[in-house]
């Protein structure tokens, strides 16, 4: 099992957070660039499902290896997928929404995303502080599984 010291790193918390933030920015930019190059033939729901599989792999390696380098690598891949999914998701909305309601729909989705992510992060941090890191990772794993199942259901309904 995972001990409470959790991840072995020579850097402080703030340095690791700064590195992860830099990785996030680089991954999103790279994902935006690759969205019409490598992932041109993939639809948004397939990419979302694949990103959840990558999140589950990341959690598995966090549970087993506790290596900060693996966290950095998987985080880069996840943010590349996020950068790839974002423009495809906007096109997905444009295909299925009437033109007169398009601005309101995209604004509502952006507001939803902007508000839900901090709430989810706050909830996970609450669980980590109240119960420990292992419980926080379990919450992330369970939410990833739920999101992956919902994405697969949506993908099957679309076909």
Automatic annotation (TrEMBL):
Record-annotated membrane-spanning stretches: 12-32, 44-63, 69-94, 106-127, 133-155
InterPro entries membership: MFS_trans_sf (IPR036259)
UniProt xrefs under Gene3D superfamilies: MFS general substrate transporter like domains (1.20.1250.20)
Source organism, top-level taxon: Bacteria
UniProt entry keywords in alphabetical sequence: Membrane, Transmembrane, Transmembrane helix
SUPFAM superfamilies: MFS general substrate transporter (SSF103473)
Protein name: Major facilitator superfamily (MFS) profile domain-containing protein
Organism for this UniProt entry: Facklamia languida CCUG 37842
Species lineage: Bacteria, Bacillati, Bacillota, Bacilli, Lactobacillales
């Amino acid at each position: 099992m995972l001990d409470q010291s959790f991840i072995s790193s020579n850097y402080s918390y703030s340095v690791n957070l700064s590195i992860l933030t830099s990785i996030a920015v680089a991954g999103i930019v790279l994902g935006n660039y690759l969205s019409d190059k490598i992932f041109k033939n993939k639809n948004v729901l397939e990419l979302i499902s694949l990103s959840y599989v990558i999140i589950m792999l990341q959690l598995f390696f966090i549970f087993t290896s506790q290596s900060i380098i693996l966290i950095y690598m998987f985080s880069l891949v996840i943010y590349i997928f996020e950068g790839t999914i974002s423009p495809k998701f906007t096109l997905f909305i444009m295909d299925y929404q009437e033109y007169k309601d398009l601005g309101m729909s995209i604004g509502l989705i952006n507001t939803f995303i902007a508000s839900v992510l901090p709430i989810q992060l706050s909830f996970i941090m609450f669980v980590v502080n109240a119960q420990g890191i292992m419980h926080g990772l379990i919450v992330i794993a369970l939410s990833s599984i739920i999101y992956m199942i919902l994405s697969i259901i949506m993908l099957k309904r679309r076909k």
